[in-house]
Amino acid sequence: MPVFKRAWPTERLIKPGLRTRIFIPQRPERVVQISAGDAIREDAITKDTYWFTLHRKGVRRQKVGVDPLEARAVPEAQVKGYLHERILYRFLTEKLRLSGVFTFQSSFEGGRSELGGMVADFLFFNWKFVINVKGPTHYMFLQSKKDEEQEGILAEMGFTVFYVDLPTIESEYRLEEWARRVFNLASSRGAGLKSDTSVDSPDSGNQQALIDAISDELADVDTYLDYVIAYSV
Amino acid sequence: MAEYGGWVKLNGKDYIIDISSYKSQDLVDFSPRGTVAGQSIIVSELGLYQVMLQSDWRHGFGFQFYEDALGYLQTDGQVDTRHPNIAMLMTQPTSTDTVAATKEGFTVFDGRVYSWGSTGTSISGVRTFANSTWDDIGDSDAADYGIVNYLLPTTTYMFVAVDGARLQKLDTADAATVAGLSANSTDYKWLIIHNGNIYAGKDASNIVYYDSNTDLSQLAGDPADDTNEITVGQGGYPVLGAMSFMGRLFVFRADGMWEIGEDNIARMILDYRNEASSDNFRSWANLNSQIIYPIRDKLYSWNGVRVVEVTPQALTDTFPYTTYGLFDNFVVFQGRLYLTARTNETTYEEHILCYDGVGWHKMAEPLATGAGSVTGMGYDSVNNRLWYHVSDTENTTWYIPFQDRSDYPSADFPTSGAHSLITSRLDMGFRRVKKSTPSVLVGATNLNATRYLRLYYRLDDASTWTPWGGNDSVSNIIDSDGVTELFNPLDESYTNSIEYNHMLLRTDFVTDTAANSPILEDLMVRFLMRPDTNYGHSFAIVGAEGAQFGTAHYDDRTVAQILTDLRIARESKTPVDFTDPFGIEHKVYISSYNENAIEYHGETRGDVNIETRILVNVVEV
């Protein structure tokens, strides 16, 4: 029989002293993953005419090079982590010459024992700040609240947390601007992003109030569902 | 005359083939995608040609290959690449003082710029820039100062460390009086404010004195006057200067960096004893809470925890590589470090470089003749200028103005000389694959008929630059705003392309008006990857004893011998010779081998005779 409680008042939880931490419920069962590629008959869908090869996507051009994002990342054999974490790792060490100034632990490794289990992807211990790569799950309600909670706890420990999202890492220009601001490096005023492929939708700003309202409604529903999942396992 | 069509030659032996089975096919893809910087996709044509884009140069010079989306190889002249998404001309220096005396440093006191240094005929060791001219400052005897080692400004006084003579102070009316405790208060090399005191190091000595009086009336200069002097290490290395960093006092000697603690004991922090040199710690600066300093011809950054090398990369991509050394005259302002550096060429040049914590940028080329040096540099926060002094065949003081309320260069651009931006080697991620380029696109603004960009290219190991579009001095000019496509790289008369493994592009910046600079926004190269083509051949060999094609080709081997010969060819670790049915010779490997029995014919010459059809695939190498 599930036990229902009121939604967590998270803003009250980010306080020193005895408290209950946000629990991120795990899936009770792992989904069996089948690679979709295995079920596709390539020969049936990419059949070319015998005399000429033409697709609406253009002339067939094999992708034999390195993924542009992977080309910017430190190899996984060298640093264990997600792609975007490894891009940032290489940027910090090669461009900003910060090797040895920070320690890195991928978020998939759990948390840092020296910080009581806190997740800190890039920990600049002497500079008292943390950089966390904000992956897609961090925009879900419960995870975003968990981030707020961890940010508060790290703040109590004297650390400032900077978040960097995936589109920022994917764009050389956005990452450059973000890094120059975080690390207090010289940057011109009004830095442009005209070459950036990851700009927001032009009309998204006009709908922000509506998005906020819907988000608030969904947040309540999400919290309720989290409880249901958490206590029904 | 050889007879072709029904036979091939493989590994030195002829084989009869079923001619209708012969096929030949290209094995290499027509044009695989090159690997270019991630943002290049936004200028894709979604057509045959791939486009490589560069629209930011903030990671500076020294990138031999285009592996950094924001890097390039080098600039010549004065090109400013510090700002996002543009490259433009840098402000030209202005000459102000040509008296025969060397300035060693600059500082600001009471809203005026002062310099210190050596003397000339009737030239003081202290000069000031007021009312648009440089004037001598007299000493306490109303005579010209001799050589001055250092100036330390405070709000009330500016202290003058005269070489070999008594410390003096200037008030805000430039009236000089002696300072220090006694006649022994002489020959200081440097002074610094720290921890409620002013510390002063004696010239060519490792002894440091300090005083907490605002007018330095108790600053001693000899142990006889003050037994609290601080001795920085031993070994005869004088203290070159000091820096107050993160609340701690550090002093520099040729053998390392030392810290003078609260207990007035100096301890070595960074040890360079095995590299002790007069080139060490020629200058130093605090950039973004990191001390940047030179050890011989390398630059290091120390953040209080870890030392990191930050030496600029090489300027050129061919032997002998041009590199920088002799880093000197460090100045930090507006979040950037400016310094002078000398090239390793016989006819050396000295340049003013800028380091923003990520990339190195060349700002100016004060010396290019292999003689002289830049002796001093300083920032003037009153007039917003970077002052520097060049001493070669004559002494000249220059300044580069900076723009108020803007990071972009002040609008006084050079109207003569060569000013160029040279890209890295554009290899599209595949250095050994040929690329074909029919045109480039240049995005630029603020252009007109007399203020324009010119484009040149250099292919592979060539040493000369070729104007894009021939030598007509017209085709390679971009003089209208927006995106300009330059076709016909070889000449202006017909459509053509250039082929290369890697290409460098050089963009020249030209203006006839000092108030305006052409602005380069984008460089886009259209290209196709064109790998070398290899072919594969497929055919069926007739494995039959006594098979004959025409009159010239008769195979009297047994089937077993034919199969054995083919298996040996299949096994070969080196490429084997192959002559196709058209009589064309190739080097190949047998990539696929398939025997199919057709009919049993008993035994012949001791071998089982089974007529066989052998499918063979060979690939050219």
Can you tell me about this structure?
The complex is a heterodimer of chains A (about 230) and B (about 625). Chain A has about 230 residues and is α+β, with helices and mostly antiparallel strands. Chain A is built from 8 helices and 4 strands; from the N terminus they run ααααβββαβααα. A 4-stranded mixed β-sheet of chain A has the order 1-2-3-4, with helices on both faces. With about 625 residues, chain B is mainly β. Helices cover about 0% and strands about 45% of the residues of chain B. Chain B is built from 1 helix and 50 strands. In chain B, strands 3, 5, 6, 36, 37, 41, 42 and 44 form an 8-stranded antiparallel β-sheet that branches. In chain B, strands 1-2-45-50-49-48 form a 6-stranded antiparallel barrel. In chain B, strands 4, 35, 38, 39, 40 and 43 form a 6-stranded antiparallel β-sheet that branches. The longest helix of chain B is centred in the last third of the chain and has 13 residues, at about 560-570. Chain B is elongated.
Rg of chain B from C-alpha positions? 37 Å
Kindly state the percentage of residues in helix of chain B.
under 10%
Please give the count of helices of chain A.
8
**Low-pLDDT residue spans of chain B:** none
Report the sheet-strand fraction of chain B.
Answer: over 45%
- The level of helicity of chain A is 25-40%
Task: Give the rounded overall mean pLDDT of chain B.
Answer: 92
Structural class of chain A: alpha+beta
| Biggest interface, chains and residue tallies | A-B, 42 and 52 residues
State the secondary-structure class of chain B: mainly beta
Shape of chain B: elongated
Provide the gyration radius of chain A in Å.
22 Å
Number of strands of chain B: 50
Strand order of the largest sheet of chain A: 1-2-3-4
**What is the terminal-to-terminal distance of chain B?**
28 Å
